[in-house]
């Protein structure tokens, strides 16, 4: 028998995160394109990001035909958060901005690398957008899973990094509170001993 869920954060009512989810404003509009498989993920940080940002939207699917015409109305201010040839880093984009804050559209694919590439394949016009990439050396706070590649972050961490870089360091850190609570709850459920045995091994540098 499944446990009752909060209709807003989709967590079990006994572990509702709504009190930890902020309501933050941003000049940057964030559009998260979530692969359908990610809706069943235990963390689903894309949902947390969309709930915590006033200027954010979450769309689920593989094909987004309506979005191409919507992007035409942005006046070229749309960026795709995905590495690729010619991609600018967040720091480079922020340094290029002058004057008043810019109202950008940041499109964030949500899924594994394979699923994110699938989204670009199904929506080829996405691949034509200017790319934004994360800087090297970033470390995820998700301590329960080894990152698939160096510098790989969860969706909510990547969004926070981008918004902090574009609009002010630390302004969006509060968005990570429910994410941290999820991690701590998972560690508590498995027990400290199991966590240390299975997830802290290999922390020492290689000989």
Outline of the structure:
By secondary structure, the chain is of the alpha/beta class. The protein contains seven helices and six strands, in the order βαβαββαβαβααα.
Layout of strands and helices, then pairs:
Layout: E1 29-34, H1 45-52, E2 56-60, H2 65-72, E3 78-81, E4 88-89, H3 90-96, E5 105-110, H4 113-122, E6 131-133, H5 155-167, H6 177-190, H7 192-199
Parallel strand pairs: 1-2, 1-5, 3-5, 3-6, 4-6
Describe the structure.
This is tRNA-uridine aminocarboxypropyltransferase. Belongs to the TDD superfamily. DTWD2 family. The chain has 207 residues and is of the alpha/beta class. Residues 201-207 have low confidence and may be disordered. It is globular, with a radius of gyration of 18 Å. Helix content is 33%, strand content 13%. The termini are far apart. The chain has a single domain (23-134, 153-199), classed as Alpha/beta knot (3-Layer(aba) Sandwich), CATH 3.40.1280. The protein has a 6-stranded parallel β-sheet.
């Amino acid at each position: 028998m499944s446990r009752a869920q909060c209709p807003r954060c989709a967590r079990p009512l006994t572990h509702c995160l709504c009190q930890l989810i902020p309501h933050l404003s941003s000049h940057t509009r964030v559009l998260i394109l979530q692969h359908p498989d990610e809706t069943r993920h235990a963390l689903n940080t894309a949902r947390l990001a969309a709930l915590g940002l006033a200027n954010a939207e979450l769309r689920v699917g593989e094909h987004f035909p309506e979005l191409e015409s919507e992007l035409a109305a942005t006046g070229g201010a749309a960026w795709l958060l995905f590495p690729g040839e010619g991609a600018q880093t967040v720091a480079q984009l922020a340094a290029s901005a002058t004057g008043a804050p810019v109202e950008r559209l940041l499109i964030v694919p949500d899924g594994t690398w394979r699923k994110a590439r699938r989204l670009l394949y199904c929506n080829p016009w996405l691949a034509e957008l200017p790319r934004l990439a994360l800087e090297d050396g970033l470390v995820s706070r998700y301590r329960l899973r080894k990152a698939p590649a160096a510098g790989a972050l969860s969706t909510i961490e990547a969004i926070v990094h981008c918004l902090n870089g574009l609009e002010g360091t630390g302004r969006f850190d509060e968005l990570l509170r429910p994410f941290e609570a999820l991690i701590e709850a998972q560690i508590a459920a498995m027990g400290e001993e199991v966590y240390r045995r299975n997830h802290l091994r290999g922390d020492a540098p290689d000989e």
